[in-house]
Design a protein that fits this description.
mainly alpha; two-stranded antiparallel sheet; 267 residues; 12 helices
């Protein structure tokens, strides 16, 4: 029987199960025999790693398991690619990567793999890393919303945190009021743009803290609202088109009527 197939329950041939070792062997073969793969470096591969991570995220949001499976494969390819490039440089191997991961997870879960007690994740990371600053080790390109969440996580890991969601909720209200004080109540204009930007930043940071404290990630919550806005706006455009109109030709009051109609339709 061919090594690449096995006999299924009904007697027909079916593909043999593949392993991570098979995937790694394939990557090494591509690196050895494909002209494009051979010349890639960690630097040239950076855009692909970022792109594939975003595509996995899109697949998760889409809820399609087949798409998610394929996109995870593409992301795995990037992990294997970087490991093979590193091995070619004599830096480390995929086995070293796996070993470091296992050692780290054992150390981070002493209550499961040792005789230690369960401790907050960020507390253990801070002690292990011996950071000189709160943001040390965070990627430079991390989106601002995600960075705020991670900074707050790290601060919470050493005990600098609210007891519950009431603290950040009160802070959000406080920051809203400070933002409102910089808006002229008669004209709705802002005179001190720098101070206004600073207060808006404080408000956003407080909202992220409220999200974190209630087990919600701010980036995911905003993604959900972005998608809802796009969906509602597209429905507004369709409703207006059905009436022989375009949104750009309507007043704000008329546009609001379509917006309200869309919201009523969703309920």
């Amino acid at each position: 029987m061919d090594a690449s197939s096995s006999e299924g329950p009904t007697g027909e041939n079916s593909p043999a199960p593949r392993s991570l070792d098979d995937a790694l062997a394939l990557m090494k073969d591509l690196r050895a025999r494909c002209d494009w793969d051979r010349v890639q470096t960690h630097t040239t591969l950076r855009p692909y790693l970022i792109e594939e991570a975003h595509e996995v995220d899109d697949a998760i949001a889409g809820g399609d398991d087949a798409v998610l499976r394929d996109e995870l494969g593409d992301l795995l390819l990037q992990v294997l690619f970087h490991a093979v490039v590193a091995e070619d440089r004599g830096a480390f191997t995929m086995q070293d990567v796996a070993g470091a991961l296992i050692a780290k997870m054992h150390a981070r879960h002493p209550h499961l793999y040792g005789d230690g007690i369960k401790r907050p994740w960020e507390s253990m990371k801070a002690q292990k890393a011996n950071r000189s600053t709160l943001e040390e080790g965070l990627p430079a390109g991390l989106p601002s919303l995600h960075r705020a969440h991670r900074l707050q996580d790290r601060a919470a890991g050493v005990g600098f945190d609210w007891d519950n969601a009431l603290g950040p909720l009160a802070k959000v209200r406080e920051e809203v009021e400070e933002v409102a004080q910089l808006v002229d109540p008669d004209t709705g204009t802002v005179q001190d743009r720098d101070a206004f930007e600073a207060e808006l930043g404080d408000l956003l940071f407080a909202v992220v803290n409220l999200c974190r404290k209630t087990g919600v990630h701010g980036a995911l919550a905003l993604d959900r609202t972005n998608a809802k806005f796009v969906r509602r706006y597209a429905t507004m455009e369709r409703l207006a088109a059905a009436d022989g109109r375009t949104l750009t030709a309507l007043s704000l009051e008329e546009q609001d009527k379509y917006w309200d109609a869309v919201k009523r339709g969703e309920k």
